[in-house]
């Protein structure tokens, strides 16, 4: 065999990071959103007016603070049945009582409840999904809002052994989305809404090293966070392809913008001080939840979803902080990596590769983290 033939037969070199041009474009997207989000979103009302939602049942994760809290409150006040999926159900119950008192005399009592969900435990995710599916009722909107950005902290792992950003921001919401498919199909037309971030633009995912422990990349909280957000888009894009139009289940990722939330509590004191100096550029939680509410309720979203599917678009719908369709990063279009992320994610969360297909057909699927049969 000639050297030329041997060279052409050799496998392509594995991509180990973003190229410098991708990196620069990514950071320009980040700083562009910080500097210009108020201008690009200036056409939006605050709070965002909602269409009729009285017939909707919505699950909102991480809804005791920040964007999730505003999302849950506004959906409930608009008439939706809202389920606050949270770690601290006591805090959620206190919020519910507060909202009911404030709403008293303005209409019917808010239809809102709290259920326990800890995204740092995949067993908790499986228990939540089992409990909800056991109701045999419809689910119209799943809002995967909860997330962490432990800025500046050392690398930490969940009780399941996974890097905390990857688990909370990607693995756990992915497991929840798949396990709740039976209820979402019952609620068709329904939507899975993933609160993502412009920071995915500087993320890179190695499906063979999702915990960032191999040493090929130096871990930082920024690497952990941005990688988890990119992984979420990639997984959502494969789910977008696998869900037939007939199911009526849409999958959407979105950017809320740069928002003043509890993420700031994880910053160093110096960064918290600087964060507080630029309130003009930073959205309030009420402003930051607009793209979530838009994605969850706008009647044109299913049509947009259908158009992208018919055009064989490689990534799932992505809504920007100004409530307009946007194109996520170039790396998110890497369909080969996205497929590997899909397969690795299902492996890590304990689901078979054909889980989605089986659930669509009405079959039962066993999760490694679910309740064990006697």
TrEMBL record:
<dbReference type="GO" id="GO:0016491">
    <property type="term" value="F:oxidoreductase activity"/>
</dbReference>
<dbReference type="InterPro" id="IPR002347">
    <property type="entry name" value="SDR_fam"/>
</dbReference>
<keyword id="KW-0560">Oxidoreductase</keyword>
<dbReference type="GO" id="GO:0009507">
    <property type="term" value="C:chloroplast"/>
</dbReference>
<comment type="similarity">
    <text>Belongs to the short-chain dehydrogenases/reductases (SDR) family.</text>
</comment>
<protein>
    <submittedName>
        <fullName>Dehydrogenase/reductase SDR family member FEY</fullName>
    </submittedName>
</protein>
<dbReference type="InterPro" id="IPR036291">
    <property type="entry name" value="NAD(P)-bd_dom_sf"/>
</dbReference>
<keyword id="KW-0150">Chloroplast</keyword>
<keyword id="KW-0934">Plastid</keyword>
<dbReference type="Pfam" id="PF00106">
    <property type="entry name" value="adh_short"/>
</dbReference>
């Amino acid at each position: 065999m000639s050297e030329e033939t041997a060279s052409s037969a050799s496998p392509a070199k594995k991509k180990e990071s973003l190229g410098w041009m991708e990196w620069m474009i990514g950071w320009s997207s980040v700083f562009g959103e910080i500097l210009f989000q108020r201008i690009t979103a200036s056409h939006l009302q605050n709070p965002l007016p909602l269409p009729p939602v009285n017939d909707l049942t919505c699950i909102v994760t991480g809804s005791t603070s920040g964007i999730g809290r505003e999302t849950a409150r506004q959906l409930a006040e608009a008439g939706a049945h809202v389920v606050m999926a949270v770690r601290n159900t006591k805090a959620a119950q206190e919020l519910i009582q507060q909202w009911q008192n404030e709403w008293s005399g303005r209409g019917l009592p808010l239809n809102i409840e709290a259920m326990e969900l800890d995204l740092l435990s995949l067993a908790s995710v499986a228990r939540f999904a089992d409990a909800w599916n056991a109701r045999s009722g419809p689910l119209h909107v799943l809002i995967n809002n909860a997330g962490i950005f432990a800025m500046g902290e050392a690398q930490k792992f969940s009780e399941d052994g996974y890097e905390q950003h990857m688990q909370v921001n990607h693995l756990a919401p992915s497991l929840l989305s798949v396990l709740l498919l039976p209820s979402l199909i019952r609620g068709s037309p329904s939507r899975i809404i993933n609160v993502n971030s412009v920071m995915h633009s500087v993320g890179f995912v190695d499906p063979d090293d999702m915990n960032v422990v191999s040493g090929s990349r130096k871990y930082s909280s920024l690497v952990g966070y941005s990688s988890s957000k990119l992984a979420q888009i990639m997984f959502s894009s494969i789910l977008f392809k696998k869900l037939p139009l007939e199911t009526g289940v849409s999958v959407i990722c979105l950017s809320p913008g740069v928002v003043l939330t509890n993420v700031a509590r994880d910053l160093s004191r110096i960064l918290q001080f600087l964060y507080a100096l630029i309130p003009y550029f930073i959205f309030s939680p009420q402003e930051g939840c607009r793209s979530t509410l838009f994605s969850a309720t706008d009647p044109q979203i299913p049509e947009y979803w259908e158009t992208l599917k018919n055009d064989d678009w490689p990534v799932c719908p992505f809504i920007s902080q100004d409530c307009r369709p946007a194109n996520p990063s170039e790396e998110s279009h890497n369909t080969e990596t996205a497929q590997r992320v899909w397969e690795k994610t299902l492996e890590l969360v304990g689901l078979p590769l054909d889980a989605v297909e089986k659930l669509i057909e009405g079959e039962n699927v066993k999760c490694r983290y679910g309740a064990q049969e006697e």
